């Protein structure tokens, strides 16, 4: 699919610039159901590839506008954000690479660990960040913990959890001595925030965590169903023993209730 001009996040979510957090959340949930790639592909409205890109665009918009700090930054720098210019222009004097191209779903395609896949692209990005840290740590005579690998779709939960624990708690060793002395601390804090924000952005897109949440939801659903069935068997037994005043247990899930009373 050819890349299109970057759209305004408010336009993507179909809300006004003064929309409340609840309005943004409600619009996102509504659009997420409409634009889910499986639904789009099944209806023939969009190809799987185009539907995936549209859904990723929605996730990106919600990731920014649902976070007060990111939304405030976006509102302040909105023309730059639309045109795809640097999100990190405060670091124009830094000797290392720009992270801004990686705060968008346009930088990867699919979830493989090769080519332009999600795991390949972001694995290399965080490896480069760590290499920069290692360079400055060695230059300054400081120690530096190794970075856990980003991995792929098939590594264990503990492995990719270690990766996010490391980067969500990132604290740079770089001294930013090319900044004016009074600006160095702010530069350090800004770089920490930028790297942590990137880790948060990546985490929200990570298929491993999405799949994990789905499995947990399914397990909770199954536990609730088994618990309700066991309770209703006990109620049925008590009814057979002559207690007619006991009713069945019902839950908020209509589909679950239908299964339980069959």
UniProtKB/TrEMBL annotation:
<dbReference type="Pfam" id="PF21884">
    <property type="entry name" value="ZUO1-like_ZHD"/>
</dbReference>
<dbReference type="GO" id="GO:0005783">
    <property type="term" value="C:endoplasmic reticulum"/>
</dbReference>
<dbReference type="InterPro" id="IPR001623">
    <property type="entry name" value="DnaJ_domain"/>
</dbReference>
<feature type="domain" description="J">
    <location>
        <begin position="8"/>
        <end position="78"/>
    </location>
</feature>
<feature type="coiled-coil region">
    <location>
        <begin position="202"/>
        <end position="241"/>
    </location>
</feature>
<dbReference type="InterPro" id="IPR054076">
    <property type="entry name" value="ZUO1-like_ZHD"/>
</dbReference>
<protein>
    <recommendedName>
        <fullName>J domain-containing protein</fullName>
    </recommendedName>
</protein>
<dbReference type="Pfam" id="PF00226">
    <property type="entry name" value="DnaJ"/>
</dbReference>
<dbReference type="InterPro" id="IPR036869">
    <property type="entry name" value="J_dom_sf"/>
</dbReference>
<dbReference type="InterPro" id="IPR044648">
    <property type="entry name" value="JJJ1_plant"/>
</dbReference>
<keyword id="KW-0175">Coiled coil</keyword>
<dbReference type="InterPro" id="IPR018253">
    <property type="entry name" value="DnaJ_domain_CS"/>
</dbReference>
């Amino acid at each position: 699919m050819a890349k299109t001009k970057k759209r305004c996040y408010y336009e993507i979510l179909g809300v006004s610039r003064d929309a409340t957090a609840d309005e943004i959340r409600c619009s996102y949930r509504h659009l997420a159901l409409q634009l889910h790639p499986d639904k789009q592909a099944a209806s023939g409205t969009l190809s799987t590839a185009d539907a995936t890109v549209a859904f990723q665009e929605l996730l990106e918009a919600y990731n920014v506008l649902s976070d007060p700090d990111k939304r405030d930054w976006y509102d302040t720098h909105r023309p730059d954000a639309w045109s795809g210019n640097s999100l990190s222009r405060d670091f124009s004097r830094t000797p290392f690479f720009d992270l801004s191209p990686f705060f968008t779903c346009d930088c990867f395609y699919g979830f493989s660990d090769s080519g332009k896949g999600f795991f390949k692209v972001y694995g290399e990005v965080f490896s480069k960040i760590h290499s920069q840290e290692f360079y400055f740590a060695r230059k300054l005579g400081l120690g530096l913990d190794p970075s856990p690998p980003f991995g792929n779709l098939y590594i264990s939960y503990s492995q990719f959890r270690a990766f996010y624990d490391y980067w969500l708690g990132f604290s740079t060793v770089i001294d930013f001595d090319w900044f004016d002395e009074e600006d160095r601390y702010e530069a350090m804090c800004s770089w920490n925030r930028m790297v942590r924000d990137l880790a948060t952005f990546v985490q929200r897109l990570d298929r491993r965590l999405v799949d994990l949440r789905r499995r947990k939801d399914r397990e909770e659903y199954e536990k609730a169903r088994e618990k309700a069935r066991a309770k209703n068997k006990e109620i049925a037994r008590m009814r057979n023993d002559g207690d007619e005043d006991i009713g069945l247990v019902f839950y908020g899930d209509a589909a679950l209730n239908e299964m339980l009373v069959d």
